[in-house]
Every structure is written in structure tokens, then in C-alpha cells.
Amino acid sequence: METTRYPRLLGGLYIAGRRNGEPHLEKLNPLSKRFEPAEWPASLITLKSGLAATLHGPKDGPPLFFRHIERPIDPNIPALFIPIMQPPSIRPGHLDVIERLEPAAYVVVTLSLDCIRKELLPELVRASFSDEDFSIKVIDRNDPPKLIFAAGPAASSASSADLSTNFFSLYPPEVAVAGTPGIAIHANPGVKTYWFRMEHAFSVAGQASTGAVFDEEQGAWQLVVTHRAGSVDAAIAQVRRRNLAISSGILLLLALGMAMIVIYTNRAQRLARQQIEFASSVSHELRTPLAVICSAGENLADGLVVDPAQARQYGVVVRDEGRRLTQMIEQVLDFAGIQSERRTYKFRPTDISEVIEDALDLSESQIREQGFSVDTDVAAGIPLVQADKPALVRALQNLVSNALKYGGTNRWIGIRAWATPAEVCITVDDRGAGIASKDLPHIFEPFYRGQDVVDAQIDGSGLGLSLVQKIVEAQKGSVSVTSTSGQGSSFRIVLPQDV
User: Fold this and answer.
1) Strands 79-85 and 103-111
2) 203 exposed, middle or buried (CB, 10 Å; 0-12, 13-18, 19+)?
3) Residue 2 lies inside a defined structural domain of this protein
4) If you ran DSSP here, which 8-state letter would residue 182 be given?
5) pLDDT tens digits for 407-416?
6) Is residue 428 part of a domain?
7) How many domains does the structure of the chain reveal?
8) Which residues does residue 83 pair with via DSSP β-bridges, in sequence order?
């Protein structure tokens, strides 16, 4: 037993029989390795009283039959009962009819239930089942509420078993009957009874041989296996639903991916188109002041202008167009710097009234030439803001230029500034044609120009409002627009106070 896989499994080894007509029990002594007389334990009392019992075989069977007095396994002990049969002597050349045949003795092997529960069954379960997926129970077949062993997650009481099979039994083909050489064992297909066929060396040729019949042993214990989902069918349905959900999710992701590809493709095409329009607009806007400057310079160089007053007018034209050209170039450079994230800002306490004055000064020539009137309303005592003043002036100048460009025939611009408890607000209003509702969500996108503006062939690069938004957001502020078709637009800049 020291070399066996389960050394604790064997509880005791006995030989139970008769001696002098009385039940006699001997137990193996592991130290002396001999069987020694022993007292009958309470678990073997049934065997002791049954050694004298006589059971007969069926009337229509072969002439020699016997049945086990004890079943091969007693699950309550638990123990194995192995009969030792001693066949009677048979005269040579004769077929004797023997009315009964009894076991001469039993080999009794008691087993450790504790070892079966803690070692043998857990290892068998680990080798055959997953503890996470199945609830495994071993119960007494004759007393189902009696639990022998349990493993895995608890199954619902309403769950039906996915697998139920009886075990812990011995079938006659598995039993070696001592003292009866020459036994050939077979089971008839479809018959619920196992037969022992005993061939005798002294049987007469052609005569029927003797045999033994046993009732089929159903098994003392029952293995009940239930899936944690309630049943294997429920688990399969759950896996199918999960796989369907995963597949649907993958298909949805693929559909979203395709949709995003289409959206980004359209956006890229629109951006490419806007960039082409931007290049065309910028080249046109650059050509106009350059043409004016070149024309004025040629007239001066050719001596066509001799009057000092007229020469001063030419100088003003060259100056204004040069400033206009400089502003356009700086606007493009500012956009490039912001897009490349190399644009740096120097934040200082800034007076909003000075920002408004500087922006109007830079736009003075355009305001005068186009005949616009500007109304300013700057509240007194507006707190300072932390901002990059030149950048903020550039943003406000772009809003003024936008109002000059789209102000329409009313030729009016309104600039207001006021403070709230935590912010400073600036608005630039015009009374032009307004912005179409479909263009409002895109008005601050670079290169974007509304279709109405393009159709009206109004010059512009599509960068001005995008620069305004980038600059204001860099000052930790925000810019928004409201517009009513036919009534004009209002752009609002909101900046945090310098606290």
C-alpha cells in the first residue's frame, strides 16, 4: 500500500467465512502480513448473519445456479465483497444436478470514505470536467438527498441534470471467482442478465454445461453533472447569443469604419477643393495691390507725376496697398505658424479699449475708402485681460475686415465692449446680408467660404475667421457668431479677466 497512488484508500482487508458451523472473521495484520482472528465490526453484521442463507436460482435455468448472498459493493461502509466459490466434486462421465451452490467465504475490502471524498473523486473530476463550467455531485442512488461529494459552482435547484449515471458497482464480468478454473464469461446482447458459463474438464461431450446467473448491478452511487448556465443547451444558447453579439459588434464597427472612411474622404476632397480656391483667391488678392503699386511706381518713374500734391496721392496709394499686401502675407504666415504649432504668444495685462483703437487704426484706410461708419461703445472701467496684444489686435482687425467685406449697402459697423463679473466681452456687428444657416457650423473652418459668397465673387481667402478662433482660443477665450439672413451678423469674443 505504500507504493499505491491512494495509500489511504484501503481501510481494512478481511476474510469472512464459517468455522465449525459458525461465522468466522480474520483481518490482515499489515505488520505481520498475516490474517488474524478479529471481532466482527458493526458494519459487517449483515454479512455475519447472511453467511447461513441459501438462495436458489431460477427454475428454468441450467442445472447449476447460484447467486451472491451479498452484493459486490456496500456503499454505506463502503466495502467490496468478493465471494470465494468452492464448486462441488463432479463424478467423471456424469452430469450431476446440484440444487444449490453457496460461497465458501468472502474477501471483504473496506474503503476509506474520507479518502474517496477528498482525494479520489476530486482528482477524477479535475481530469474530466472544468470546475468553472460544471456543477458535479455524487449522491446515494437509494437516498438522493444524501450528498457524497460536490464540486464546481452551485447549480440551481430547478436545473435539470445534463448527465446522470450510476457507478460504484461490480459486474459479473469484473469478478474473478476463486477456486473455479476454466470459467468463460460472456453477456448476451440485449439481455439484462449476465451469465457465467462454467466448462468442466469431466463433462460429457454434447451435454449442457452448468452456469451461474446474476442480477445486473445498477450502481450504489449516482454522478449528477449540471452546467452552471442551467443546462448544456442553455450554455450553447448563451454562447450562440454571445457570438452573435460579438459578430454584430464587429459588423457594426466595420460599418462605422466604412462610414468614417467615406466621411473623411469627402472631407479631404472638400479640403483639397477649398485649398485650390484659397490659392486662387490669394493669388488674385495679391495681384491687385501689386498691380496698383507697380502702376504707381511706373508713373512716378516715367515722370508722369510732377505735381507735389498728386505725388503725395500716389504715395498714399502705394502706402495703403503695401499695408494691405503686408496684412495678407502676415495672415497667411500666421495661419501657417498656428497650424505648425510654432506660434508663440506673450501674455501681458492688456487694455481692451487700446486693442479696439489699434484694430480700427489698422483698418482706417479701408473704412474710409468704402465709406463705412463705425459706432463704438466701450464701457468704462473694463478690467484688464491676460492676452498677447498684437495677436488680439489681429483677431479684432480680421472681424472688422470681415464686416467691411460683407456689410452690404448699409455700410455700418458696431463695436461694443463690456465686462461681466468674470469675463470681458467684445462684439463686432454689421447690417449685411447675414450668413446662411447651413454655413454657420462651418464658418470658422479654414478655407471655408459659403456658397453665396463664392457665387457673389467676393474676394477672400477663407482664413480670417479661422485665425480669429485660433488666436482667441490661445488667449483662453472663445468666439461665437449669431446671424439672421438679411439683417446682418454679430461676432462675439469672450475673454477671462486678469485675476
Assistant:
1) antiparallel
2) middle
3) no
4) S
5) 888 899 999 9
6) yes
7) 3
8) 106
